[in-house]
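User: Hey, my collaborator sent me this sequence without any context and asked if I could get a structure. I don't really work with proteins. Can you help?
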Amino acid sequence: MHFPTTVEDHPVIQEAVRRLDALGDPRFGRTLVRCLDDTLARTIRAMPDGTAFVVTGDIPAMWLRDSTTQMFPYLALLRDDPALQDLLLAVMRRQFAQIAHNPYANAFNAEPSGRAHDEADLCDDPLVWEEKYEVDSLALPLLLAARFWAATGRTDHLAQVVGAAHTVVGVWRTEQDHATRSAYRFVRAGGPASDTLERAGRGTPVARTGMTWSGFRPSDDACVYGYNVPANLCASAALDGLVRMARHVGDHDLAAEARQLAGELRAAVARHGTVRRAPHGTFYAYEVDGLGNALLTDDANMPGLLSLPLVADIAPDDPLYRATRAFVLSAANPTWYSGTAAAGVGSPHTPPDHIWPIAIAVEALTCDAPARRVEALRTLNDTDAGTGAMHESFHKDDPSRFTRPWFSWANAMYAELALDVAGLGTRALWSRGGHA
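Assistant: No problem. I've predicted the 3D structure and written it out in structure-token form, which is a compact way to encode the shape of the chain:
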């Protein structure tokens, strides 16, 4: 099977480049093409079973979350392009086969090679690269499946998606009562504390709240408290899409269960996932434990609080989101950095004072000011250290100090923003929750 390796001649991209060039900076369009072509030509591997394996960039494994976000910008190009449609279908077929194989794993090998991030991990499945359980690793492929349906009208992937979704819903139900029902453990010796779970691999104590527990965040760092708020809100939006997909294939029991669980997650976040602090008022916490503890921060990785309109079907003008956004983009947020090169959100996953291009793109995509989105495009090009690619993070005062020279997710988020600035992106699809 052969997949497309360039979008340079795609009519949507040609029009996008024309509109971006009209803004007076030829880097905008050149970087858009470079980022999208890099993903197609260098990260995707056609597999003998007709699926597609997608590496993150400089790590030779396929992350469920990253492979989803790497595909998101192509949703805007799918109309009348069956080759790109088939590519995304192949990626999704791989994702949902992986979920069915091990729903607690976040990253997989192309073959059962036994390669692993750390060979001392408890998981000895040769197909699994890493078994860090993260709610978002299950939620984001469901979002992609629903959005693909909305973008193309194709439904030939829905039976497999719905089949694997029974496993997803079962895991999320189990992890609503992690302490007594879950057998999941994760222990990694010899690394930082953020690379393992406390209490014999179980994580820190939590009370039952109705939210679903996660061992790790979208950054692959261990949760401080077990209920990651943006991941739960993302899961509820993914379940909304699952309701529609399950109804379409006639699985009305799953549709009812997904609708019930989505409501439980949202209600639990409303009860337990917000705090009130001056001067921002009431806003979302990043993590809570149901025992009175809350972590007030955000992380550049998606789903995060800043990205809720993109991944959780929350309107950008929602008052609770606006209050949360004001907190995240302020010095009160410990991951907010402002320097001579840029200002933006970082992550404990990278060194202090490092800003993530993903977060710059997310901040622009969730604002209501067109000029701010253009400014963000310029900042992203100004901080690429002359490489023509987006990095994981860069120092706020010196973009030549960056982490991960090849990070396809960051390239994808640049493409999302550039297409949006050109008026050809997928924000309208996000704003209606990927409804088909």
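In plain terms: The chain has a mean pLDDT of 96. You can pass these tokens on to your collaborator as they are.
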